[in-house]
Amino acid sequence: MSRAVSRPLSRSLLAAALLLGAATGCAEASGADASARAVRAPAEGALADRAAGPAFWVDPRSAAVRQAAQWRRQGRTADARLVDRIAGRPQAVWLHANGPGAQVRALVDAAARARRTAVLVAYFIPHRDCGAYSSGGARDAAHYRQWIDGFAAGLGTRGAYVIVEPDAVAQMVAGCPRAAAAERYALLSYAVQRIKRHPGTKVYLDAGNASWIPDARRLVGPLRSAGIAHADGFALNVSNYQTNKVSSDYGRRLSRELGGKHFVVDSSRNGNGPYRGTEAWCNPPGRALGTPPTTRTGVASLDAYLWIKRPGESDGTCRGGPRAGQWWPEYALGLARRARS
Q: What is the CATH number of the domain that holds 151?
């Protein structure tokens, strides 16, 4: 069962990220009117999760922040308040373009100035998404290692939570004829070890979700080949909709098979659980925001619930959605309206 994962960053975000290095929370970089330049994330005390252990960073320039500001200018204050449920909470930033070092540095510096921790996703493996909606990535192994070196160098001594290559392992287990398993696992192991060298950085290798590879034991060998021994743990449910309980139970089973490795769960859109129709992974209707990011999980081996997928950004051109990773205001509004918290 293959699925595409939406990719939230546009290429233009590099310039914005570099500006973060100059001034946290400053105005939008270019082409915006005076109102847009005044955009700020909602007050952290109001919406950012107070229970998060290491306080995770809230992106002051996210699409959700800009959307809320636009709707307020248009008088759509009720809709703006709903989208604040997304805008005011920490979400991962995905890196998937050439030359990530400067962008990583700008992001971790901005987080450090806010006394918060950035959550980053490395997403550049060759044959990414096995040619589906989110295809792309490095042109070959040498290009990927160079990219990872740049990503890691950008971390410096700041530290971050880093999710390594969503789908990359589970796709190989499920079947991806475009990629060679030995090369992919070697590249993943390189990425884990290179990033983990940096102090304060926690590294989680993606392991798919509970519905994709139901028998968790099938992931054990591939994860070991991909360097799980050098990681802090693994990530589950990235861009998917499995409930916290299902993901936690699955994660504990996999953890036991891996000698007690810890894990994180993407709870960004799992508030109503999975969709029971076709293409359940791609912009399914009726979904809701899930548990806000926190390290207080109640499960010893579950390090955090994180919003790894950025809610409101499309999974791909299905069900009328825009390209993978593009902001979709109507979908975002539905997720927020149906949220329980």
A: 3.20.20.40
